[in-house]
Write a structure and sequence with these properties.
Layout (H helix, E strand, L loop, with lengths): L7 H17 L5 H8 L3 H10 L16 E3 L6 E3 L15 H5 E5 L6 E5 H9 L9 H10 L7 H10 L4
Antiparallel strand pairs: 1-2, 3-4
Amino acid sequence: MSKGGTTKWSRKRRRKEILLYKELHPLATLTEIGEQFGVTKQYISQFLRSNNIVQGKAKRRKDSRPIRYCKHCGKRTQMASYGVYYPVVCPECKFYHKKLLVHCAFCKTPFYREKKTIRYKFQNKEKMIYCSLSCYHKGEKDGLTKKRTKAEIYRNALYGNKQ
């Protein structure tokens, strides 16, 4: 018997078991392995180093960014920022998320306008949505540019001025 009450045979067996345990549990820390076999983490570190086993800092990490689905196309998307819960859209759909297809009240040309701009016009009860300032002035001359109800504004924004 040597000091510590272990024989040479039991040390060899313990070393084999440590190697086997490390293979089966590559993410286990030195402290966890030491507690499993009743030795210090320093002993485990020296033993693994002498057997040329890489001990890099293995981290048990999960990708904590939640996986969500695009509101427009339904594809899986990972949120870039943490804890932010804006409506999730993929980069391909970002344009369509912020803009709406509307029709000019004067020339009937379809064009995209930001939702917040349409909302602003809606709140100010502007009668029509125009693609340009020149169409706005032409609409003024024709009498199209008047205050109107919310239903008229919404209907015109989505379908144009079809009557």
